[in-house]
Amino acid sequence: MDKEIEQGYNEILESLRKRSLWILHYCTGCGAIELPPTMTSRYDMGRFGIVPFVTPRQSDILIVTGYVNIKTLRRIITSYEQMLDPKYVIGFGSCSINGGIYWDSHSVIKKLDSYMPVDLYIAGCMPRPEAIIHSFKHLMELIDTGKADGYRRYKENYDFYRKNQRKVLGKWR
Amino acid sequence: MTKEYELNIGPNHPGIPGNFSLHLELEGDTIVKANGDSGYLHRAFGKLMEHRLYLQNVALIPRICVIEPDINEAVYAMAIEELMGVKIPERAKYIRTIILEAARVNAYLFGLGIFAAATLGLYTLMQWAVGDRDYMIDLFASLTGARIYHMFIWPGGVRRDLPPKFEEDILDWVKFIKDKLPDYDAVFFKNSMFLHRTKGLATITKEEALSMGVTGPNLKATGVAQDVRKDEPYAAYPYLDFEIPTMTEGDAWARTIIRRLELELSLNLIEQAVKKMPKGPVWTKMPNPFKWYVPRGDAYARVESSGGEYGFYFVSDGGAKPYRVYVRGASMPHMYPLAEKLLIGQKLSDAPQILGSLNICPPEIDR
Amino acid sequence: MEKQTKNGSDLKEKVKEFEHGSLISPLSSAKYLFKKPHTLQYPKETKPIPERYRGFHINDLDKCIGCGNCMSICPCEAITMVDVKAFYLVSSKEGTTDTRPQVDYGRCSYCGLCVDICPTGSLKLSKDLIYSSTDADTFVWVPAVEQGREIGFIQSDELTPLVLDKLEMSELEPDVRKKTFEELILGFSKEEAQAEAARCLGCGICMQGCPAHMKNPEYIQAIFDKDFNLSVKYMLEDNALPGICGRICTHKCQDDCVYNYRGDAVQIMWLKRFATDAIKDYSASDPVRLPQTGRKVAIIGAGPSGLSAAYYLSLMGHSATIFEKNKIAGGGLGLGIPMYRLPVYEIDKEVEHIKSLGVDIKLGVEVGKDITFTDIMKNFDAVYIGVGLSYGRAINLKGEDHPDVIQAIDFLRQVKVEGRRDIARKVVVIGGGNVAMDVVRTVKRLQEVRYDDGNTVAQMASLEDWDILPASKEEVEGALAEGVIFNPAWGPKEVRFNESGKIVGLEIKKVKSVFDENGRFNPTFFEDQIKTLEADYVVEAVGQMTNLGFIPEDIAKDLKYTPRRRIFIDDYGETSLVGIFAGGDLVETSLGNAISAIANGHRAAIGIDFYLKGK
Amino acid sequence: MVEKILLAVLVPLFAFLVGIFLEGFKRKMVARIQRRYGPPLIQPLLDIIKLLSKKDNISHGLMFDLGPVIALSGSILTVFFIPTPGFKLLSASGDLVALLYIMVIGSLGMALGAGESGNPNASIGIARALTLMLGYDLPFVIALSTVILKFDTTNLYEIVAAQSDLYWGAFLMPITAVVAFIATYGAMGEHPFEVVVAPQEVATGPMVEYGGKHLGFLMIDHAFHIYIELALFTDLFLGGASNLGYFFLKIFGLHILLTFFDTVYPRFRIENAVRFFWRWPTVFALIGLLIVMIGG
Amino acid sequence: MEIERLNQVIRGTVEVKRKQRVDIIVDNADIVSALHSLKLFGFNQLTLVTAVDWIEEQQFEVVYVLYSNAQKVVAIVKARIPRENPEIETIEDLYPNANKYEVELTEMFGIKVRGNPDSGKPFLLENWHDLPPMRKDFDSIKYATEHYEARHRKENND
Predict the structure, then answer these.
(1) For A37, which of B11, B40, B130 is closest by C-beta distance?
(2) For domain C296-388+546-614, is the CATH number 3.50.80.10?
(3) ipTM strictly over 0.95?
(4) In terms of CA atoms, which chain B residue is nearest residue A28?
């Protein structure tokens, strides 16, 4: 009985929570160029309660906007770990899925989900604002149904992620 | 108040234009040492281009600088055209000019909007400017097929002719932005609060600027009318009538106002180019992409970007792929050593303004 | 100038405007409180997507030929060609593959270069670029035409990176060439060859069509790089007689060339000819030669397949001996192909090259007459039979035993080898194939040389109509330009004589159909539509046949044949008899052209090598 | 007794609802000026629910955790002291001097908590907050003194009562009212005085290390803060109100004005802000005081 | 403007390549003096410093691109240095913005810059232990394949 109440309570929370999503303001790659148009007057994703926020502590979503340089990867992981649960990661565009056009670069990783859990990927190089809004709607759905559980996966498979992180970053902490 | 801090600003910091960070040493609120830390966006374009055929590189190079990708395409095309001795059709020159100027307007709208929001906290200008810029992005999509990375200017000319009604649409947009400019002025450029914060801030002299290799609006703000569009005219600039705006103050305010004036100049240039554009072919046939060899030699091609002089030092060994390409971004000298020097002695709260007014684009530094 | 100064002063005034700020002016933005926002309320509202939008791919799988050029041009290695047989019925047409592009949207940069390069125009980009998924593996798929996916970016006819137009080959003018046996194709200059080579995309789809599977992209690339020795080296890997093929090949490769879909095929054959002409001898281009094994192989017939087999056998270290009944080597090439297409010196060059590897060619030795087949079996470790179809096939035409009715192969041999120069004024050639073309054009030349009053007729009668004429297009056009008269879709009925027994004409009847409904050769005629072609000489060019009489009965009885009465061979050219190999026109896999024979010879050489190693 | 408890719940609830509505309305209005639609009105509430439902996994010590609580309780306490039509809870309620002291608690709690986080940005933010407080407090205190002098009482209820029939403080002491408005504006930390949070400079300053529930508390505190500042100004210069609706309308009007300024001005430098407050508003506050002293 | 006169001031070959472009080839030892003369000659802006790895000739070519603001001419100064233990002299005193270009040179090519205090410090790369990446003998495709795993592509996904 208690469990059911808790579950119901969680469900209500999730459906409310999805309507307020704060993005970490971190332009990791070139896909960040399509975020300002999405945020500003033409597309105004603020309509869905999605706004950029400054520090990892305050944010719910980490958007990895495209390619991830290893130097950036280190900061992204730190930022991600600083964020409070529940937190979500969106991989933006081709590069975060499989390296994109930088597949042969010596400083860009290819598979983002080896290093951190990714809840949602968006296709495009870069995705256009409609696609970004579409994907946020998709993420909201996932949150509503409890499928956006990347932060749990990160804890469960911490050793796996840590091993991969070490592989490219060395023993960095 | 002489407590010493060390403070890392960035890379995820809204006051930092893009993904790079600053290591500051502070005494109280005053910066005593500033070190830039770049490389967060390093992808080694020089190396990547060595792996790709000349046509494939057309898809790669716009990605160097995301704010104004078209300059990369233009400068790449110009370097190859110089080495191959190719002349491009007149109409292509005009189309290139229109694209480059529209991209410049976009870059300024975006840059000034972000400058107002991300340094001074005036979000209204950003909301307007970036929103209005989006109409041009839509026009770009109808012209080239993509919103940001157009891959449209390629060696020999441009990839396609203008779509129907494009001339009218772009003139409409120019008019639209011109109508909006008084609003921008009212809320930002003529806002006393803005003047108050930027006048006299981080002044550079003409001599300093020249010796540090500063170009573009930052140099024009010190009174030097240096602009590749005039000095070494490319595309259709020789046929257009324009004057390079300069100011003499050399401070953050002057740098911002110069960009505001350039914005208007670019709008005028688009109008001129659209009106003067002749009919005709838009592309000089290039070889089959798999057998596209560029004669041995080197070339330095340069254009005026929204930040300053942007160039490719291009070396070919006569093969099917570039032998070496060095990308000269305008922001490199603006960050190192200019910004590092300008920040010393300034208040922490002014650091974003200084960086913002220099219009530093980190991907140009990292490449 | 006036305007410029005006602009200059304008600028100064403009700057002044900005020198003084105001705290009141920002308040003017209040007006927007009462205006409608310009936000596009996606997903409630959408905006039209422009025509050229570059989104996900659309690929018309039926139109796509799987050439893989999209894969090669992709700057991100996003495209891989995957086998689609599992879920798509692939056409078995020649010049297509079973693979179709698969796009990894974790790589794609939406540049559209694949669309621009696509030779068939099957690949397009759509206006759709909205897709998100939790599973990164779902970003890889084989694009097809999908419901609701609108076409966006398509290729342009003019602004294409492909070089669609071929370089016209210069040849002798019809008026000149019909009077001479000089080679009529002049060949490329170095610059022309490079320009033509520069058109090749290097996709290699042409290699399938070639019976010998020559490495066309590689040798064309080498020609483009001006490394002709390397180029010929690539050719010699699969073709022992590249110079000859560069002149007379049926160039299936060019028929398969992807350029055919949007422009003119790359002239692979002329490029081959150029490269072989550009170097004097091939000694620098021979592929690696293995050490001598001491094994001996006999080859019967010095035609293309025999020469090819001998060449590759000697490369593998076996010693080859060729027995040829005629006085010259080259078989059908040497005897049958007219000089204006294939000069004798070219054959000599290639034969000398093969000889230089130590191949012994015994000319004028007819097996069965000068040496018995049994002796050969005894003295050699393996035998290769490549005697070809060296006898003309009669069609049982009424009056065909007249001396002025001649078989094409005999006629051509007489002209080329025996130096025959006499010809009648009115000649009819029966047949519509390339041999018939050779004959009729040879006839034309002989007539032009012999009778300078122009009062001559060279015409042909073929069963096939224009659209299914087996002769190659270039040949037909060349012949037409030289003044040959065509009678397509007319079958021969009988030869007419006058009282003195001299031929006066050929009676022909209108063809109803050439093939029956099963596609088998079975001509039917309108028996009532008959006309007579005036003629005093008739050449039959309808086919050839072989004669394997030199093989003793006790051996020959075990020889297996295919249903179409060709010798049965396995994949490596071995007949049903151990140690006896066959190739060339004798076998069914051959398509009756030189390149197939060369390919057979090569296959058999590999088979013989296996056989000898296993022995 | 029951009544008191009821009031103790209702007054903060009213304050909170007003604050949260104004916050939501502000976002809508800002959006409108920026030519967009903006988030729904209840967005701040959703944000708070979201934040409170977050799982905290970082703490920087007891003081860090207590900071937001102190700030929030300070604010709630302040609400009790501000005259709201129809509610009177505490006997000391309405005492201006006590109010001034209590109002500082919130900022202090915040300062203590943020100081504990160890983030330099937070320290800078706190330093700025305190500096700014010095700035706006000077003219504000002078303005308050003027009011006290004018109405000859420190009790807000009496001040409100004295302003009945449109004898509003704003009409009686226009200069002082403007000064107090500017000071209130500064206290609310809106542009151009948004130097404490200043995301672009110090990454939200004191709040830099706060996330989740902490931030949720701070946001509730902020809602109260809006109410407190505006209600105080309304009581002092706009004659309070006879009923809640009227009271709300006055606050609402004030807030529209504030929001509008917030939208169109960029941020001051902290020292400029302080200098600004110490210059014109202070001078005018003194003039206002002088007028009152002379004119009685 | 007498670009031709450059020949008299600079030890090396001066070639006017086209309008507004001058190619100057100097010896390794003469780089600083040549740049010094060029600066006096009016080439007051340093546009870039880079290098080209001519691996077949076992040489690096150091390239300085200068711009004369008054004459509107770009000068490209090139000097070949051996590929083994490459070293050049700093020009930071002449052109302050050369510093980071030189740092980049050290990082990307392994060319030591004498007199530049930052030479050898990391600039764009972090934790780099391999060959300097812009050298021709550094195979970045191999490096990328070895270090960063790629997604395995499933075939026939429809």
Answers:
(1) B130
(2) no
(3) no
(4) B19
